[in-house]
Amino acid sequence: MRKTLVGTDGILINDSNSTLLAGTVDNPSAVADSDGQKYLKAGTLLTSDKDFSLTNDGSAVLTPTTDATKAQGVLLHDTNVIEGPQSASVITAGTINRARMDSDIAAVYTNDLINALKPVLSNVKVIDRD
Fold it and tell me: Could you read off the pLDDT of 29-50 as tens digits, one per residue?
C-alpha cells in the first residue's frame, strides 16, 4: 500500500526538533514499479561508503540498507531514482513515526533493528503512533 505524505502527515513528528541534511540518494538495484518508476520510500534507512555527516561535497551517495549498524540517516520523503542519483533530505536526528510509513518499510523497523539503530543514530527515535 502506498501512502501519500503531505505536510505534517509525513514520517517526521516535529520538524523544528530534528536535523535534516541534504544528500544524494540512489538505488541501482531498484526494480521499476507498475508505473515504470523506481522509488526509495520515506523511512528507508540509508548508508554510504563515506561518512555522510562529514561530507558535504556530494561525493557520499546514500543507498538503502537493512543493517542498522551501518545506517547514516533515514530518508524523509519518497524519492524517485528512475534517472539515477537524486537530491533528498536525510534525517539524522528527530522522531520518526513508523505508523506513517508504507507497510513494507515499517516492517523493517523490528524491535531488534530499532535497538541496533540506537548506538548508530542515537538522536533518531522511532515511535509507532496513529
Answer: 988 999 999 999 999 999 999 8
The CA dihedral of 67, 68, 73, 79, to the nearest 10 degrees, is 40
List alpha helices for the chain, DSSP H.
103-106, 111-117
End-to-end CA separation in angstroms for the chain: 16
Q: Please give the Cα distance from 66 to 36 (Å, whole number).
A: 24
The reported pTM is: 0.90
Q: What is 4-22 written as a DSSP string? A: P--GGGSSBS-GGG-EEEE
* Distance in angstroms (rounded) separating the CA atoms of residues 9 and 30: 26
Per-position b or e across 4-26, b if 16+ CB within 10 A of its CB? ebeeeebbbbeeeebebbebbbb
- The single residue listed with the C-alpha cell 557520499 is 60
What is the C-alpha to C-alpha distance for residues 61 and 47, in angstroms, rounded to an integer?
8
Give the separation between CA 39 and CA 83, rounded to whole angstroms: 11
